[in-house]
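sanity check this:
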Amino acid sequence: MTGLIFAATSVAEQLPPPIEVPEVLKNYQDTQDCFPGVIYDPSSVAEVQQIVRDAVDQGRKVMTGSRRFNSQIDAACAGNGEVQITLENMDQVISLDKENLQVTVQAGMRFRDLTAYLRDHELSVPMVTELAIFTIGGMLGSGTHGSTFTQKSSMISDYVTELKLVDGKGDLRVISGEMLNAARVNLGVLGVVVEVTIEVEPGYKVQAKVKGYHSDDELEDVVLDLARDNHSANVAWFPGLGRYTVTTYNKVPLSTKGNAYNAQADVSDFSEYLFGLIFDSLHEADSATLQCFAASLRHTARSSSYFRDVDSGLKKWIKPTGHADLMQHFVCKEPDKCVWDNLPIALQEVAIPFEELPNWIADVRQIIANSEKTCFPLNGIYFRFGKASDSYLGMTAGRDTAFVGIEYTLRQRGEAVPKNYFVNLEIEQMSLRKYGARPHWGKNSVAIFEDMAERFPKWSQFMDVKEELDPNNIFSNPFWSRVSGADPLENYLTPGCNPDGQCYCQTDEHCEEGASCQAGVWYSDARICKAD
């Protein structure tokens, strides 16, 4: 392992003034609050070092995260009263090495700014996510991914050749070699990542193809080839309708005519208003018909081109072509405000072994066939793909992967669950316990992070690296305590915990009023809250 140390300076740095409570950190949907005791916005590595050293002296915990963090859980939140660092003032390109195809950036840089910078230099990152608002450090913290099965990886983490972090003693470490595989996906618990060097490649464009299918009978037979045969692919399966859609992207030369962008999220105010009415209605007791109507609308919307020309704003129906990042990022009508900011959703995503996806689909068919009429109205069940990673804690660690996502609507925390929410819970538990699924580190609810150490073959090696880099365990927070087992999930088995996603029920008191805790309708090892 490699982890070069830069010795601490002898003179304490002058720190920027902390922001004292009562400032509260919130996520992008206002569904998660964090209550640090102090927030720092350092502008240099030396300032980060001094913040960490002071925290060590005070016996306090430290976590790095944004004020308006782009996660539905508390993964990047400091614990109550602890030390929160944001890197919003450390967001610049440090160097570009065109000859060796590498770029070095500060960890607070947003991915959209990196891709725009590289585009200006006729370069590209080898992977692209569907959301570009994340910081580079945040993407390494959670293992953010896109969808590609022909590139080396779908995670930006796997294109990192070196990173610098401030460790648990306040020293600056240069991480490379085998230790880098631990730090690629680090959950923020190894230190404060401050600089990252990333592989890039010559710039290119992609050409998209969008197609909707009105029968899903052959989905198991074709889904893996869709991943293998295209540069990037995503599949939205609407099993309640018996339909699916496919969007594929394939590389074309940078000189190819076309300047389109992905306009899925660029919706009008009126459309957003209508979505809001549907969102509220989807929680009502008689909403099955409306749920499937909404799913039908989404299937139709995803069945033809949702790309527009950058200059004219007109829809591109025939061979939409554009820069890889603009074609695959969701571009919203306002840069920092998308439809899901106003209409909150919950997104449960897991990663299962790639070759098992057809079997998983067959099992989900059985769950739905044995349940009440159920549709998935937002994006259906959403499939993306990635090659095996050398990272210790990446979702793709050691195995080719299919990412499986299910979205559902929120109203207010704990007040209501979507129609037939128990179907989602049965699918989740089947994925975890039959298919060895790994939850996405930046999405999901509390309950899904069960037995995490057993899901990653190199978990113990990751813990060894944490012990070396953070011997006093100052980089910790409530999320890490839960997923590492220090705070067992049994502690969250409280009355009404199931509707909040805090638990999978074990007794009736864990369910919402009018429901009881029952075995799954198809996967009997699941425990679901279902109306009597």
About this structure: The chain has a mean pLDDT of 89. Residues 204 and 255 are 8 Å apart (CA to CA).
